[in-house]
Specification:
Length: 245
C-alpha cells in the first residue's frame, strides 16, 4: 500500500478492462487519479470516489487535452491505455482502417504525452507507461497487420521519449502483453463462429494455460509508476504467460 502516495496520475481508457483496473490500483496505492475515457458513461460509477476524477474526453482532441493539463497541473504518472484491434492481413486492410489503427494506437499517445510532458519536465520527475503488445516488433502474429504495425510504433515512440528525456527525470516504458481477458476481448470472442472454441484457443496460446487479467497488467503498471522502477526507462516489458518464448 501507498507505493504511489503523493503522486498524481492520468489514466486513459479508464472506463473498462486494463485501464479501469490500473486506475483503481493506482488509487489503492495512494495516487490521485484522473481517469479518462471517450465513453463518459463507463466512468459514471467512478465519479465521487476518493482519489478519482472521472473525465469523459477524446484523447485525439488536442484542445481538450491542453485544457485538462491545465486543470491537473503537473502529473507524476501517465498511463496510455487507449487502443483498438484490427483483424486481417495487409491485403484486406483498407487505407481507412490502417490510418485508424495508427491514429488511435499511436497518434493518441503522441498527443497525450505532448500535453502532459511539459508539467513533468517542470517538476523534474515523471513516469510514462505506454500500452504496446507482443504483437508488434516483438513478434509477428497472423491476421494482425495494422495492429502489430501500430504497436511496433508505440515501442519506437517509447524508446525515443526515454532517450530524449532520461537526463531530465522522465522515464518512459512500454508494457507488451499477450491476450488479456477484457470486455473488448470478450466482445471479439463472442462475435466469432464458435466462441467457446475461440476462448479455448486464446487461452492455449499462453503456455501457462490462460489469458492475462487486467489485474496482471495493472500490477505491472503500478511497479512502473512507482519509485521501485526508478532505474528502468526505454524498456519493453513482456508480460505474456510465456507466449513468445
Amino acid at each position: 500500500m501507498n507505493r504511489l502516495k503523493g503522486k498524481t496520475a492520468v489514466v486513459t481508457a479508464a472506463g473498462q478492462g486494463i485501464g479501469r483496473r490500473t486506475a483503481e490500483m493506482f488509487v489503492a496505492e495512494g495516487a490521485e487519479v484522473w481517469a479518462l475515457d471517450l465513453n463518459a458513461e463507463l466512468l459514471a460509477d467512478l465519479e465521487g470516489q476518493d482519489g478519482l476524477n472521472a473525465v469523459g474526453l477524446n484523447v485525439l482532441d488536442r484542445n481538450a487535452l491542453s485544457e485538462l493539463a491545465t486543470r491537473t497541473g503537473p502529473v507524476d504518472v501517465l498511463f496510455n491505455g487507449v487502443g483498438m484491434v484490427h483483424v486481417g492481413d495487409i491485403m484486406n486492410c483498407t487505407d481507412d482502417e490502417f490510418e485508424a489503427a495508427l491514429r488511435v494506437n499511436v497518434i493518441s499517445m503522441f498527443g497525450v504525452i505532448k500535453a502532459f510532458l511539459p508539467g513533468m519536465l517542470e517538476s523534474g520527475n515523471g513516469s510514462i507507461i505506454n500500452m504496446s503488445s507482443v504483437q508488434s516488433s516483438v513478434r509477428g502474429f497472423p491476421q494482425r497487420f495494422a495492429y502489430a504495425t501500430s504497436k511496433a510504433a508505440v515501442i519506437g515512440l517509447t524508446k525515443s521519449v526515454a532517450a530524449d528525456y532520461a537526463n531530465q527525470g522522465i522515464r518512459c516504458n512500454a508494457i507488451c502483453p499477450s491476450a488479456v481477458d477484457t470486455p473488448s476481448m470478450r466482445q471479439r470472442i463472442d462475435a466469432m463462429p464458435d466462441p467457446a472454441q475461440a476462448m479455448a484457443d486464446f487461452s492455449a496460446r499462453q503456455p501457462v494455460g490462460r489469458m492475462g487479467t487486467p489485474e496482471d497488467i495493472a500490477s505491472l503498471a503500478v511497479y512502473l509508476a512507482s519509485e521501485e522502477s526508478s532505474y528502468m526507462t526505454g524498456s519493453t516489458v513482456i508480460i505474456d504467460g510465456g507466449a513468445v518464448n
